[in-house]
Structure formats: C-alpha cells, structure tokens
C-alpha cells in the first residue's frame, strides 16, 4: 500500500538526501531521519555496547556519584534598578529578580557563580541563575531581605500585583447592578456553578449544593466595631463584607482575600478565626473562598472569588472558555520555545518569534498537508508519522521566521522528508 513515503523517482532523490550519523559500534551510516540521540543502528549493536560497558565497569565496582552542587555566596539578590527593558512572566517576581540584561550564556550565576547555560530557560536567563535550584534560592533570599526591610519593593520599576483583574475589568464589573441569586447548575451543564463579576455584592445569594450564603456590608448590619477594626489595620475607607450562612447562622467578615472575623456555633473565642465547625444537626461545615477563573469578551483573565459555607470544599475551577484559552496559549508557547531552541543551536540567541497557535495554522490550511496535499486527521497525535506538525516554508536552518506567513501544515513524516529544503508556498531564491 502506498502511504506517500516514496515516489516513482525515489532512486533519483536518494542521492540528494542528507546522510545520517554513523553507528557507534559498527560504523554503519544510519538513516538521516533518525533522532540525533540514537547512537546505535540496531539491537545487536546496542547489546554489544552494553556488554562492553559491563566489562569495563563490573557490577561489583564501586559507584562513582557526581558531587552535588554546592551553593557559594555569589552576587547578593538585590534588584537591578538600572533595568530599562520590560520583562514578561510573573508580574510580581520577574521585575524584582530580573537583571539589567538577559544572559546569553556564560555569565556567572548570582547564587553559585557557575556559568549560566545558553540553553537555560528564558526566566532563568532573565534572572542570571543557572538552574531551578538556584532560582528557588534566589527567591527565598530575596523574600527574606524584603521582609527584613533591606529591599524597597515600591522603588522597583514595572512591578505589578498578582490580581488577575485589571483596572478596566474592575470598573466594568464594579458598576452598579441588582442583587442576583447564583445557583448550582444541573449536571449536564458546561460549568457547575453560576457567577458574575469578581465577587458578590450586598444582597447577593449564593446556593452551593443546597447550602445558602447571603451577603451584606458590616455597616448595614450595625457592626461599627468590626468596621473600625478593619479600617485601623488596612485602608481607611475599607468596607468589610459579611457572609451569612442561612442553615447555621454562621458569620464571616472579609475584604478581598483577607479574612477578618468569624462567628460560628461552638466557637471558643470571639477573636479566633474558625473556618470549620459542626452545626446543630451534627453536620460538618467549612468556610471556603471559592475561586473560578474565566476570561471576558476581550480574552482577558479574571477571577471570581466568594466566601461560601459548604459541606465539602471544592478546588479552584476553570471555566471552559479559560481552559480553551489556556490550551491555546500552551500550544503556541511550546511551538515558539521549540523554534527558539533550534535557533540557539544555529547560534542565534533570543530569536524573535510570534505566538502562533498550531491549530490556527491547521484550520487555515483546512487540515491539508501542504507538502503531499493529503488530508490530515486531527485525531492522530504525535509520534504517529501522520500526525499534524508545523513546517517552516523558509527553513529554520536559513533563519526562517516563526510567523504565520512562514508556517504551513504538514504531516510529521512529510516534514522529516523535506528536511531543510524550501517548501511549497514560497519561491526559493535563485
């Protein structure tokens, strides 16, 4: 059966294909499409190499362990205020830990002094650390210096908070609206719970699996002492919200993610924040800050947060819209990182690459391979030879850009056979 691996003029094309690497045992030149990590051409050669290794190092020979990396004091973790470039990633930690320039490889690690690998993660190269261990140490030491007051976080440029909602979203969701009832949806729905905005407002009612929680401001309930306590220890105009559990009468006061005060059945001390308790009927209840992550119409991320009293706590949930966007971002980031890693192998450091989702290219090309012009099956996944892959029309070996205009859909096997040649879709320069 013809699967498109060869053609009528395979004999003519065989002389133009690239030669593979030689086998480490017998020296036979392997096929060019075999991975570079493969050292042996067959199982007998692999077995022969294993026997030779066992003869050179018997089982009873003492094992030589590589010494663990020792962390020696390097450059102290002080934020580089001379940084003028913008750094992406974590809006809180990256501006604090980023150096003035991204490491290109060979610069000393700020923790252990070892050279930063050229192939290190971009976040590690931004922070001038050589490994994940040194990155964790850098964060821990910097956090300790911030707590001791040795680092002024407010003076660091471009530092942001970790709040998922931006100013526009807060203004839109903070507009006046009528109180609503948010219920638990049926099991056949795409998401199990109803919600709207960033948090409940006064008068809202949340029902979670027959457990009902209502919301009111502390001022409307006459809790002036609670308002004074919160304003004395936070913002002067802070207005605490009070969550009221209808089944047990338990109360909880909070502002944003800060829990200030609870009053539950059986609470031993009024100043103790007790989030788990037993009701009069013997049922166990828990105060939980439920978090749902979603995206708005413009694709921006935001979190719904609400303190609710439930019998069984639920984890942080993602809506189908946020899950789809997260998968799209994961695919595009993985494709971009793969391209940049290949460019580093050719000596191009920090190559520019667009965030292109491979599925967008497949949909644009109508799931048709642009090399063999046969249909691609979306259900077939890598490492199947007929799985869908991205092909650079101008090859990466010739500094082809990672843009939508230079990308096309192709079967994996067709992409391998093409190699570093120019593909259809753009004329090869003379």
UniProtKB/TrEMBL annotation:
It comes from the Bacteria. Residues 1-20, 39-90 are annotated as: Disordered. Residues 53-63 have a biased composition (Basic and acidic residues). The keyword NAD does not apply. InterPro entries: HNH, HNH_nuc. CDD domains: HNHc. Residues 369-420 form the HNH domain. Gene3D superfamilies: 1.10.30.50. The keyword Hydrolase applies. One of its GO terms (molecular function) is nucleic acid binding. Residues 1-17 have a biased composition (Polar residues). Keywords: Endonuclease, Hydrolase, Nuclease. This is HNH endonuclease. It comes from Streptomyces alboniger.
